[in-house]
Amino acid sequence: MFSVQPTAENLELIARQAVEGFIIGLHKSPFHGFSVEFAEHRQYNPGDALRHIDWKVYGRSDKLFIKKYEEETNLRCCILLDTSSSMQFPKEKNKLSKLQYGCIAAASLLMLMKRQLDASSLALFDNSVYFKSDCKSAATHYRTLINKLSNTFDYESEGKSSNISEAIHQIAEQIHKRSLVIVISDMIDDSEQADVLFESLQHLRYNKHEVILLHIMDKKQELEFDFENRPYEFVDLESGERLKLQPSQLKEQYLIEMEKFRKSIENQCYQYNISRLEIDLSEPVNQILNSFLLKRNKMD
To answer: What is the CATH number of the domain that holds 22?
Structure first.
């Protein structure tokens, strides 16, 4: 999937490759340039582009003036990344965890927003939001967020449960301008809190924000429960609970419950008009970038 093994040190390079490959693969560029707001006039100087002359002023005064503009970002976007213990699955050598994949996805989205001159912010959460940046479009701000993701790439925590609903409510209260909110998570939370979770997503929609849910899973192990039929010790990364058994003892019931879990999320997202993209760890980041651009163009 990647030309080099992703690490915390080369996260920016990986993100740049993903974005450049995505842009090259587009049949038609979605980039329309940034919107501008009129600031003031200045006197025309030989060599200035004629398209910037204010001909209405010329008609009134018989003098040439150039219209000057202030750059204005097209979009405000907040990326909300789940860093709870379940996101550290799978813990296998030479295989990305959900958290590492999420960091690459977030960095790639930031790279794309930087090219678009969009304002971006980053929030990290487990059982609460413990990091939230301002929303800016400056190059120095972008660099700070990439460094934060690099430091998060190999982040390890034990027994850190996720409270997605609480995190989303916090973000909804802090975002005061209409934005695109991208939630990157495996959505593994207390099953009894499912209604509360989608109430928080509805909170974002009520505040007129657009929402994309990037639902990251390991298809082979988490969705298909594809394990060799031999004894395993399964460990709940958030609670630490351990269970020794053979996969065949659990597989049928597991697949039933997993399908119910996925359908519940899918139905709730449809109900609240939330774009959900189910991501397998083996898939390219391009799908995420495409989903982002579809939402972004909708908000222009």
So the answer is: 3.40.50.410
CB 220 within 8 A of CB 249: no
Q: Residue 80 class from Cβ within 10 Å (0-12 exposed, 13-18 middle, 19+ buried)? A: buried
* Amino acid at site 299: M
Q: Is the pTM of this model over 0.85?
A: no
Q: Cβ–Cβ contacts within 10 Å for residue 210, how many?
A: 20
For the chain, give the percent of residues with pLDDT over 90. Answer: 27
* Whether residue 150 is found in the same domain as residue 269: yes
- Pull the structure tokens for residue 126: 């487990």
Residue 261 is assigned to a structural domain of this protein: yes
Task: Provide the 3-class DSSP secondary structure of residue 215.
Answer: strand
- For range 193-211, the mean pLDDT: 82
pLDDT of residue 153: 93
Q: What is the span of the domain harbouring residue 164? A: 11-27+75-299
| H/E stretch holding 45 | none
